[in-house]
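Write out this protein's structure.
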Amino acid sequence: MRKVSDILRVAVSALAVLTAPAFAEMAGEKEYMVACSGCHGESGMGDGPLAGLLNIKTPNLTTLAAEKGEGKFPFEWVLWMVDGRKIIRAHGSTMPIWGERYQASANSQRGETAEMVARGRMLSLVYYLETIQQ
């Protein structure tokens, strides 16, 4: 017969797997509102209060799947754009290099590296962007 602690451990693990996407989306939405909505707008349509101050047209983030992914959300491309440190350096525009900012501001009480914290924030943000596609 299984111990109650074994059953509880399995239940908690299953709950974590089932709620991980929802948690990532929720964390990503908060990240978006703090880091992105100023330019891209709360709706993601490029109409944020700072958009008019930029020397480029602020992209509509709700159409990434249609415009960049032929109907499929281009997850990896969006992650590279948000990160901005290596493959697509700073988006070729005035957009901040969030990978550097997130890594520089990272702190952990559980031993994660700054890179782990930065990746977690970026992944949460990209998961959220996937949910706002038209």
